[in-house]
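To: structure subgroup
Subject: Chain for Friday's discussion

All,

I'm putting the inputs and outputs inline so they're searchable in the archive.
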Amino acid sequence: MKKRTLVLGASLKPNRYSNIAIKRLRDNAIETVAIGLQKGIVADVTIETENIFLENIDTVTLYLNPKRQESYYEYIINLEPRRVIFNPGTENVEFIKLLKEKGIESEIACTLVLLSTKQY
């Protein structure tokens, strides 16, 4: 396992990009945890509905619009990830600035593209 990843905004709906991302992360043997609105399982990953205590998170990949991200700012910063990926539609200048101040890298990119091009 490499690059433990938190998918934030995970969905049980198979057509959602967050759902596809969980499957692709697991296909690439990346340890994955997920938080979403509904509890359930995607691939072998349990989607939690609460901000659970997590350690050793390398990457947080966001599937929440900027307004919905606000309630997670402190939680994400306290996880001390190496980076936060802002997938299309999640770009958030305010949060990117906060992350930079805390020494956390941010990347405006698509997790699915990064995985498919072996840049993850």
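Points worth raising on Friday:
The radius of gyration is 13 Å.
Residues 17-27 form the longest helix (11 residues).

D.
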